[in-house]
Amino acid sequence: MKNLFWLSLGFLLLLVAGCNKEQIVNADENFQELTIVQAEIHPNANFPGVRITKTLPVQTPYSITAAEITDAVVYLRIDSVKIVPLHYTYEGLYRPLYNLPVSEGELYELFGRIGTRTFYSKTHIPYKPVIQSSHYNLSENYAEGVTLARENEVYSALWVVNGQPFIRATEFFDLSIPTTTLVTSTINVRSAAFPTAYRSDTYRWQRCIQIFAFDKAYEKYFKTKSASQEVGSPYTGGAGKTEWNISGDNFIGMFIGTAESDVVNVQ
To answer: 79 near 107, Cβ under 8 Å?
Structure first.
């Protein structure tokens, strides 16, 4: 599944549109520029790079050329030992000079500087969730799965319809947070309800679930992003009261490790 939540350009456009809540007549006068740092890091894949951009005034037409940051100094520290410099490539994307495989359980730290301003973030790379059991809730029409609960991880799930191609939910319903990290502890993770069109017995063998594991830092983001509402893309929206995991003066964004399970049928 390409880049878990379809981030990048859509995220940037929404940030540009939502970064200032003043009336349009004086939006530019009250505009505060924010720097956006974002990366979604998957295990068993190469490090994708870090995209660094800035918000634009509401009345300024969006373009990546205007939004990208090209002069940042950025590097990674992996497991407190390995140092990897990142270099600007295109459209605000900073990458290593060589392919950097990401492994489950690693700790990635991000250090950066733009002019005199510095930023920092860290994330643990989750383990790929393995669904031990799954079922379809007939009364509320959602999918639920059980997976191992690990330290520094939280979980969510999407319903999936096994078609050509797969049809997936675009929103997470809830976040499952482990209350214990014993080696044998498990956790139940549920999806949003299937749309009415997929609830009939015709789709019994096509209804599936996919579980996602996130670095624990995602918990604060999820809870503050959209209270009492389903959450879709974890990267969309303006700054507001959202708790990002990038620290620094006027920096926002998510530098987050995530992993997804195989798609499993639910009965």
So the answer is: yes
pTM, full prediction: 0.83
Determine contact, residues 150/104, Cβ cutoff 8 Å.
Answer: no
Sorted by sequence, the CB contacts under 8 Å of residue 98 that are 6+ apart come out as none
Q: Are 67 and 12 in contact (CB under 8 A)?
A: yes
What span, in angstroms and rounded, lies between the C-alpha atoms of 258 and 215?
6
**DSSP per-residue letters across the chain:** --TTT--THHHHHHHHHHS--S-GGGTTTT----EEEEEEE-TTEE---EEEEE---TTSPP-HHHHB----EEEEEETTTEEEEEEEEETTEEE-SS--EE-TT-EEEEEEEETTEEEEEEEEPPPPP-EEEEEEETTTTEEEEEEE--TTEEEEEEEEE-SSS-EE-SSB---B--S---TT-EEEEEEEEPPGGG-SGGGTTTEEEEEEEEETTHHHHHHHHSTTS-B--TT-S-STT---S-BSTTEE--EEEEEEPPPEE--
* pLDDT string in tens for the chain (267-residue length): 444 443 433 343 344 334 444 334 455 567 789 999 999 999 999 999 999 999 988 888 889 999 999 999 999 999 999 999 999 999 999 999 999 999 999 999 999 999 999 999 999 999 999 999 999 999 999 999 999 999 899 999 999 999 888 999 998 999 999 987 667 799 999 999 999 999 999 999 999 999 999 999 999 998 887 543 444 444 444 445 788 999 999 999 999 999 999 999 998
* C-alpha span between 220 and 90 (Å, rounded): 31
